[in-house]
Design brief:
- This protein has a three-stranded mixed β-sheet.
- Helix content is about 60%, strand content about 10%.
- The chain has seven helices and three strands; from the N terminus they run H-H-H-E-H-H-E-E-H-H.
- The longest helix is centred in the C-terminal third of the chain and has 26 residues, at about 130-155.
- The chain has helices at about 10-30, 35, 50-70, 80-85, 85-100, 130-155, 165-179; strands at about 70, 110-115, 120-125.
- It has about 180 residues and is mostly helical.
Amino acid sequence: MYIESSNPQSMQLINTTNEILNQLSDLCSQLTSEEYSRDLSLLLDNSIGKHIRHIIEFYDRLMLGMENGIVNYDHRKHSLVLETKVDVALEKLQELSQWVSGIQNNSVLEMQVSYAQEGEKHRLNTNVERELVYNIEHAIHHMAIIRIALQQEFVKVKVDNNFGIAYSTVKFRDDQCAR
């Protein structure tokens, strides 16, 4: 199966991913590195940068998985530079946007995960589209947390009205307003 303009469902995943990456880029462009990396008590002494790094690294693991056929989100780098330097995050978000725009097929992938401290990894079949869906939902979850911090700590920062809001919720609200 190919992801191309003749497949609207697949293009929707790519467009939605890019919308999320653009929203994150817009946010990052409004923060200094100090604000981006400031530990906030509201976030249990985590920073906005840590949440954005976490989102980025999940997409990065999918990108690597498309190269080698195996996706393992547990093997993230936890890059200190990515979570403390807003300009590095902006560069990486742009790189991911270019990458996702170039996805051309819905490759079958193997997912590896382990919930035990030690032991074998659980292996299951997945594909690129399924993992894009997962990453979209995962990003929105973290963006909702970021939005709470922005409203309390960085009121000067303006984000899209739908930043951190599930697409199903946006659709529901739009449907209610249309009535």
